[in-house]
């Protein structure tokens, strides 16, 4: 075999091993996004359970505010449905973008309920209510942190997919850009 043939085989082997390494790197970054979403999803489920408890507690106490409670329930149902879609493919852009919008709607509905509670002085005697609100605030802080971890994982993945030689392989293997929340 001539020197040129050895060089060609060596270059082919180098490209093959580089391609395998790049693929494994992008896959591990993609798995990091899925792992970060799993943590976020845990906090979303906790928030949903606490909101249900809050609504169950408030419905008999404030019968005139059923429209506000219905808005929170609707926002929560939409958020849970979209979270289910993101669970299947956390790197897919469209479901994550829809979930981000649903989070904003849910946050607005929850803020309306919380501000409504501040205006009803008769509810101050319910210690269970305020314990539930404190727990909900804690879960919201944890969810916010988990969301930040998810967004960082998405940023690292998108950076890796956007770099030059990996970009060629990313399009070849179908790695698209991920969306943050």
TrEMBL record:
Pfam families: LemA (PF04011)
Membrane topology designation: Single-pass membrane protein
Superkingdom of origin: Bacteria
Subcellular location field: Membrane
Keyword Transmembrane helix: yes
Annotated GO CC locations: membrane
The entry's keywords: Membrane, Transmembrane, Transmembrane helix
Primary location group: membrane
Gene3D superfamilies: LemA-like domain
Keyword Membrane (UniProt): yes
PANTHER family, alphabetized: MEMBRANE PROTEIN, PROTEIN LEMA
Family in the record: Belongs to the LemA family.
Protein name per UniProt: LemA protein
Species: Roseateles oligotrophus
């Amino acid at each position: 075999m001539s020197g040129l043939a050895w060089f060609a085989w060596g270059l082919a082997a180098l490209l093959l091993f580089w391609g395998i390494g790049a693929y494994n790197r992008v896959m591990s970054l993609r798995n990091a996004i899925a792992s970060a979403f799993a943590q976020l999803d845990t906090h979303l489920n906790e928030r949903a359970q606490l909101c249900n408890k809050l609504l169950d507690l408030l419905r008999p106490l404030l019968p005139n505010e059923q429209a506000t409670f219905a808005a929170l329930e609707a926002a929560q149902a939409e958020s849970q449905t979209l979270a289910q879609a993101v669970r299947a493919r956390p790197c897919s852009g469209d479901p994550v973008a829809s979930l981000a919008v649903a989070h904003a709607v849910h946050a607005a509905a929850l803020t309306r309920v919380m501000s409504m509670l501040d205006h009803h002085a008769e509810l101050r005697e319910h210690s269970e209510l305020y314990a539930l609100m404190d727990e909900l605030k804690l879960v919201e802080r944890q969810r916010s942190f988990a969301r930040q971890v998810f967004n960082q994982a998405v940023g690292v993945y998108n950076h890796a997919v956007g770099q030059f030689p990996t970009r060629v392989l990313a399009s070849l293997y179908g790695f698209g850009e991920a969306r943050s929340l």
